[in-house]
Design brief:
The protein is an alpha/beta fold.
């Protein structure tokens, strides 16, 4: 259907104007009644954060999210645009999305007064009704609220003319959602400028006797540590937010694995197939979970889920590099590729110690602990004995980048005890790749490393080569 193009056509269509909070509340109610999730791409908050957010939306509250880095605060705020109507009418040419039924800017008021029902109407998509500002110490009132536009003054207008105003981000998001990330970094004198926005729902530009009654829903994010250390949110501003919601990291490894698989980007390579075994994804997720419990890691700064995602991508890249050198067409990460996680992890955690060389030791311990955790959860201890017996009878296994998948696969015949734990590891993998030599090689190396970390086998070597022996 064609959309009304004039104010008269809009009235005849029966369109009704409602406040932004009523619009979001109405659409949220429809989602909840239909049993649809508000944020399908945000995982792990189903029973904690999302019920609180639904309550806030139904109550019509402005919201501040408190949480460490990498807890999907900004993603949730940006996802709120899906709760807006797809299209919204504005007075044509309006810089601040003027409501055709209740214009507030001088441009829109004059146009409606002059043309009446013939006033032209534009339609804006919900994606353009979202504004966002990263709070920085140099953010000014002009950025958020507005200031005199010297170009318009130079064109001949008087300073007293409202048309000389250059509107800031908040007025330009009128009838929409505005978000401020890292709110404590905003200078306290600038935070004062938001008080009217949250309570009286207007902005006042200095030097003008003009008051713009705005219709904005405000969201903000902050790190709890920043509340008291790097900056603070002034008490009157905190008091004006209707709801304060605490976010958190994934509560279990399975949820983090799902998030990693959803967010990680592994670009395809022509002629090469990539597969990531579940047990290797579990190792990646476990590294982050163990880091969040480690006394060697600064927990106040947090351990972002982004670390899990980049570790997954680094692991895949290491496996691809190794496979390209071997000339194979099937890429599957192995335990040996976990050394790549040092580069993708070190920039995302802060250690409690400043000792030289300590960082590598801490990261190595985390990775080993993650492998051991995944091994114990994946392999039945009853499968250990036949493998250990084979090594005690003189078997040894070389491992490293230059060991081909075929060499690993041959171990299933040389050490028959490996077959049961390998089958157990790969039972849930896709049938099309389960018996690929590269997949078998990854599972075999994982089993051997798990037995070594369990102190059932010895491991000698450094760099890209190692050898597993009996104790």
């Amino acid at each position: 259907m064609s959309q009304p193009s004039t104010l008269g056509e809009l009235r005849a269509s029966g369109w009704e104007s409602v406040p932004i909070k009523t619009e979001i509340r109405r659409n949220a109610i429809e989602r909840v009644k239909a049993g649809e999730p508000l944020f399908p791409a945000v995982l792990g908050y189903e029973n904690t954060v999302l019920p609180q957010l639904e309550n806030a939306l139904l109550a019509g509250h402005d919201v501040i999210f408190l949480g460490e880095r990498g807890q999907a605060k900004t993603r949730m705020i940006r996802g709120l645009t899906e709760l807006l109507d797809e299209w919204m009418p504005i007075v044509a040419g309006s810089e601040i999305n003027d409501d055709p039924y209740n214009p507030v800017s001088k441009h829109a008021r004059d146009l409606v007064a002059e043309q009446g029902d013939d006033t032209p109407i534009d339609w804006v998509h919900r994606d353009t009704r979202y504004g966002e500002k990263l709070a920085t110490p140099d953010t000014s009132i002009a950025d958020l609220i507005g200031e005199v536009d010297p170009i318009k003054v130079a064109e001949g207008r008087y300073l007293s003319d409202e048309l000389t105003l250059h509107y800031g981000l908040v007025p330009r998001t009128n009838r929409g959602i505005f978000a401020i990330n890292e709110l404590p970094d905003l200078a306290e004198r600038i935070q004062v400028g938001l008080l009217n926005v949250l309570e009286e729902r207007d902005v006042q530009v200095r030097g003008y006797k003009v008051r713009l009654p705005l219709d904005v829903m405000l969201f903000a994010s902050a790190n709890p540590e920043d509340y008291t250390n790097r900056g603070r949110i002034i008490t009157p501003l905190k008091d004006r937010f209707g709801s304060q919601i605490r976010t958190h990291y994934p509560l279990d490894v399975d949820t983090e694995m799902t998030i990693v698989e959803q967010e990680a980007s592994v670009d395809p390579v022509d002629g090469i197939t990539f597969a990531m075994p579940d047990f290797m994804t579990e190792v990646v997720a476990s590294v982050s979970h163990l880091a969040r419990q480690s006394s060697s890691i600064n927990q106040r700064s947090g351990v972002s889920v982004r670390m899990s995602v980049t570790n997954y991508e680094a692991l895949a890249a290491s496996a691809l590099r190794r496979t390209l050198r071997q000339g194979d067409a099937f890429v599957v990460p192995r335990v040996g590729d976990l050394s790549a996680l040092a580069a993708s992890t070190s920039g995302k955690v802060e250690l409690e110690t400043l000792d030289d060389g300590r960082e590598g030791e801490v990261l190595s311990h985390l990775i080993n602990a993650a492998v051991l955790t995944a091994f114990r959860e994946s392999i039945d201890p009853a499968h250990h004995r036949p493998i250990i017996d084979a090594f005690e009878e003189g078997a040894s296994v070389a491992a490293g980048e230059d060991i081909s998948p075929a060499d690993y696969e041959a171990l299933l015949h040389a050490i028959p005890g490996l077959r049961a734990p390998v089958d157990e590891l790969l039972a849930d993998e896709d049938a099309a790749v389960r018996n690929e030599p590269a997949m078998l090689a990854s599972a075999i190396e994982f089993v051997l490393e798990g037995l070594h970390l369990s102190k059932r086998l010895n491991k000698h070597g450094s760099g890209g080569r190692a050898e597993y022996l009996a104790r």
